[in-house]
Write a structure and sequence with these properties.
Length: 149
């Protein structure tokens, strides 16, 4: 059985701002080398609310699905199915909890689970996603602290 990836980190901003940067501000900081096409001019979109789409749209209008929002409780909880670059049938689950540590600090707890549905590819994809989270956080943390939204 593959254990969930669990990641906890703090950002220097309010919980409301941390949630907004992760969701509506995603295009401003998402690393372009962690997309389907990596094309210049692409836009990353995370639509609000349960059922919202997560996708990239290229400059010529082509859309590539990455996932779907499954939990939406701003500014405390975001959940989504995640299948960037994979078949949607192979989606894993991500749950992100935003915990206020005062007015200008937030702890973010991420649990990325569902690896066992991937069969023999579970550990390889889990390890690849662990590296992806490291790259992701290197962009998100400074964006949250700098006021991107």
């Amino acid at each position: 059985m593959s254990e969930p990836l669990r990641i906890t980190f703090d950002v220097a901003c309010s919980v409301e701002h941390a949630f907004a940067v992760w969701t509506s501000g995603i295009d401003a900081w998402w690393p372009r080398d962690h997309t389907v096409t990596a094309e210049p001019g692409l836009v990353v979109v995370l639509q609000s609310g349960v059922g919202g789409r997560i996708y990239e749209r290229t400059a010529d209008g082509a859309e590539h699905e990455w996932g779907e929002v499954t939990a939406w409780d701003p500014p405390r909880l975001l959940g989504y199915q995640w299948h960037l670059g994979q078949d949607p049938a192979d989606a894993t689950e991500v749950e992100v909890r935003f915990v206020p540590l005062g007015e200008a600090a937030t702890r973010i707890d991420v649990e990325h689970r569902g690896w066992d549905t991937l069969g023999s590819r579970a550990e390889v994809l889990r390890n690849r996603n662990r590296l992806g989270w490291d790259a992701f956080l290197a962009h998100y943390i400074p964006a949250a602290a700098e006021g991107v939204a």
